[in-house]
Amino acid sequence: MPYNMKKADMKSITEGYGLHPNRKYGQNFLVDDYTTDKLLKIIDIQTGDRILEIGPGLGALTGKMTERCSRLTAVEIDSGICRYLEDSLGSVPNFTLVHGDFLKTELEDNFTKIVSNLPYYCATEILFTVAGKFSARDIFVMVQKEMADRIMSPPGSKVYGALTVTLGYYYRARAVLQLGNDVFHPRPDVGSTFLHLSRREPRELDDAQLEMFHLLVKSAFWGRRKTLLKTLSESPHLRLEKNLVRSVIAEAGIDEKIRGEELSSGDYIRLALLFAKNDNM
Questions:
Q1: Are 126 and 15 contained in the same domain?
Q2: I need a labelling partner for 279 at 20 to 30 A (CA). Which of 19, 130, 144, 178 fits?
Q3: Which of 99-108, 126-135, 202-211 has the lowest average pLDDT?
């Protein structure tokens, strides 16, 4: 396969295999060698790295990553692209291709890095799945700029939400590269951001506390723009007496009239610890 993927190469491959970029899967293929090399430098692959690539597409990054890492597992949903990848990379000894929907695929949690050009339609679900099921310390994802802004937004901003808070528990997020739409084919309608999500260690919550954390976040943003006391005591996701909610909020040192979108991930962690403790009393 051409490890240097240009637009002409992409057209030759898609025509030869009868492939058509599928908007349903958010297929916008990277066709700029300079950008590919910058991404590889950012990912900083070490010889011992075991990489999971979600949605390799035509392999603009895949082939070059196999040259640097110990093992690469790629999960691809598109059967036509799988045929091409099998033909072009199937003989590479450290490459494994899994044909399937990542969200429905069972994989071992033994990767050191995860890389993906996330399709917008299911980006949030993939990120939550990666956060909950995989312990890889470094996640590198290409997302639409709008989503990157949401992930990195501060409490109180218009785009701050459950995605921000939840990923903030698991990762430190940093934008490492902005990309225009001209480095992809077909060209997406908006620009993209390459994010580095660095795993926070150690985990602050046990399984029961983490379940409470997720319920609190879901409840707080279910009642967006309502007070924290009201959203938590009236949430369909929780069964908490109003007096208990008031007591725990006070114990956490938080104003009961504050809105959920004004709290940080740390605030939700503190609340989860206190509610879980009361639940066990």
A1: yes
A2: 130
A3: 202-211
